[in-house]
Amino acid sequence: MRRLFPVTDETAARDSGGGPGTAGQAGAAGADRAHRADRADREWGLEELAEAYAYPSGLPGSPDASDASGGAGASGPQPWLRANMVSTLDGAAQHDGRSQPISSAADMRIFGTLRALADVVVVGAETVRQEGYRPARAREDFAALREAAGQGPAPAIAVVSASLALDFSLPLFTSPLVPTLVLTGAAAAPDRIAAAEKAGAQVVIAGDGMGVDPARAVRALAERGLYRLLTEGGPRLLGQLVAAGVLDELCLTVSPMLTAGDAQRIAGGPPVAVPRRFELTSLLEEAGFLFSRYRRT
Question: What are the tens digits of pLDDT across the range 46-70?
Answer without folding.
Answer: 999 999 999 998 887 666 665 444 4
